[in-house]
Design brief:
The protein is of the alpha+beta class. It is built from 12 helices and 12 strands.
Length: 516
């Protein structure tokens, strides 16, 4: 019952009339007790005080009603002839209208000041709430978290039974977002539905359930929250669109670079295959002659080069998609390195290759095919960029119980420090890009394979044997927690322990080999 009276405004008017009644009773008692001190100014001041209190507590409307009631009581109880509303004194006839005017003006001024004070306090509260909400939005990491923060803050600020926030799906491949706080009444429509929209798009809506209607300030705050959320969502979508645009531009640049590199690299082997095939087809070179064998060998090398090019591109696509998985087995790293050196002997005819692998290196959990490709790419890169006649060195060492380190050094040109981390990027070249053929994928593939094995690869400038470039990479010595294995002893009698000294493994210095 009290809420109904309060909502209709009756309680405020009753409060003002109560002040008039109390003031009138007090004045009558004062007049009867101390008649010598009683006069009209005291009556006027008392009623003005009652009007001020009513205006402060109930507002401008009840203040005006209190002023009218005070005017009537003043005339009825304290102006001669008393007990009537007639006035016999000309002075009183002037005082009463002036009192009414002063009372109403005073109520208006106090009511305006009170409204401004209330609005200022409400504005301060709304500003603080908006500031806290903005901080929560800024710290949000996604659309769902934004919706959760918006629903929670609005329910707290509005004192609502429930708040439901719905964001539309931005694209067909992304789901819509929904966040709810509280429990909405069954079969009851939302008290207010506010759109979350900017000037460019509508992102969703806010639904509020509450027993009492929202005040103008609460409606304004709800719109402010919705507008700020819309601006943030719009900025996020614009940032996503900008990111997608940059990714597409980068992808287009990479495709252009790939097409350029591949087309340039395909020319030489295809020309070799075509020239060799035509020479053999038309009998320009007899197939069984020495020249014919050279043509066949050139064609075989060209075919191998094309195969390597295709494999590189396939491996790079696997690395980019995360599908490159090492097929691990316990391998002898020395066998892998020397197998690569034997297969690349033609490429290494102008570069002595030094291999230093201690005999206590255990078996390693590696994918032999992928590690073969790592050493092939690193050696091929050294051959391309190092001057003819310079050495290429491969060194293997045990760093600790968990890590094995590999170093491959050459005497190519030193690179600027800022370019060293970037040489493992796709298509990135620093020097000799105009005279060295290739797709620019070799080092990127090495990086992908080493990281897939759980290792790390990097390059440094070296001055040990003159200026040069050194590739370093590490490999884990364990595989799913298994202990490192030692290579099996060599020789036919190794199993029964009857091997002589000549069959024992070589010392590290004996195992260092130069392949010219």
């Amino acid at each position: 019952m009290w809420r109904v009276i309060q909502r209709s405004g009756l309680a405020q008017y009753l409060t003002g009339l109560a002040f008039v009644v109390v003031a009138t009773i007090g004045l009558i008692l004062f007049q009867n007790q101390w008649p010598m001190w009683f006069n009209l100014p005291i009556v006027v001041i008392t009623y003005l005080l009652a009007i001020n209190l009513a205006t402060q507590m109930a507002g401008f409307g009840p203040g005006v009603a209190t002023a009218l009631a005070s005017f009537l009581c003043l005339n009825f109880f304290f102006i001669d002839p008393r007990g009537t509303l007639f006035v016999e004194n000309v002075t009183d006839l002037i005082v009463l209208p002036l009192f009414l005017v002063v009372a109403i003006v005073n109520s208006q001024l106090l009511g305006r000041a009170q409204r401004r004070a209330i609005e200022a306090a409400q504005h301060e509260r709304d500003t603080m709430r908006f500031y806290e909400f903005s901080l929560a939005l800024i710290s949000s990491t996604g659309t769902q978290e934004i919706a959760n923060n918006l629903a929670a803050r609005l329910r707290e600020v509005l004192g609502a039974q429930a708040v439901d926030v719905r964001f539309h799906a931005p694209t067909p491949d992304k789901p819509a977002v929904n966040a709810s706080t509280g429990r909405a009444p069954v079969d009851t429509a939302a008290l207010r539905i506010e759109a979350v929209a900017s000037a460019r798009a509508t992102f969703g809506d806010i639904r509020v359930w509450r027993v009492e209607p929202l005040s103008l300030g609460e409606e304004r705050l709800t719109r402010t929250f919705a507008g700020e959320t819309a601006l943030l969502l719009e900025r996020m979508r614009m940032a996503d669109a900008e990111t997608r645009t940059r990714v597409l531009e980068k992808s287009d640049q990479l495709k252009t670079a790939l097409l350029g590199s591949v087309s340039h690299e395909l020319r030489t082997p295809l020309a070799t295959l075509r020239a060799g095939a035509e020479s053999l087809r038309y009998g320009l070179v007899p197939a069984q002659s020495g020249a014919g064998q050279e043509v066949l060998e050139d064609m075989s090398d060209a075919a191998n080069h094309l195969t390597k090019l295709v494999n590189n591109m396939l491996d790079m696509s696997k690395i980019d998609s995360g599908a490159l998985k090492p097929m691990r087995e316990w391998c002898d790293l020395d066998e892998i390195v020397r197998g690569v050196a034997a297969r690349m002997r033609n490429e290494l005819n102008q570069h002595p290759l030094h291999i230093a692998i201690p005999d206590d290196i255990p078996l390693m959990p590696l994918d032999p095919v992928q590690m073969d490709q790592v050493f092939s790419n690193l050696i091929s890169n050294s051959v391309k960029y190092a001057p003819a006649g310079t050495d290429i060195c491969i060194t293997v060492n045990l760093q600790d119980d968990q890590v094995l380190g590999v170093t491959l050094s050459n005497q190519s040109q030193c690179l600027p420090p800022e370019d060293l981390p970037r040489i493992f990027d796709k298509f990135y070249r620093v020097t000799d890009a105009d005279r060295v053929v290739g797709t620019g994928l070799g080092l990127s593939i090495c990086k992908g394979i080493i990281e897939a094995h759980g290792g790390r690869i990097w390059a440094i400038n070296s001055q040990d044997a003159g200026p040069g470039l050194t590739f370093n990479f590490t490999l884990p010595r364990t595989w799913d927690g298994a202990a490192p294995k030692m290579p099996p002893p060599e020789g036919p009698d190794a199993l029964d322990g009857s091997a002589d000294e000549s069959a024992l493994p070589m010392t590290p210095s004996e195992k260092t080999q130069t392949l010219a």
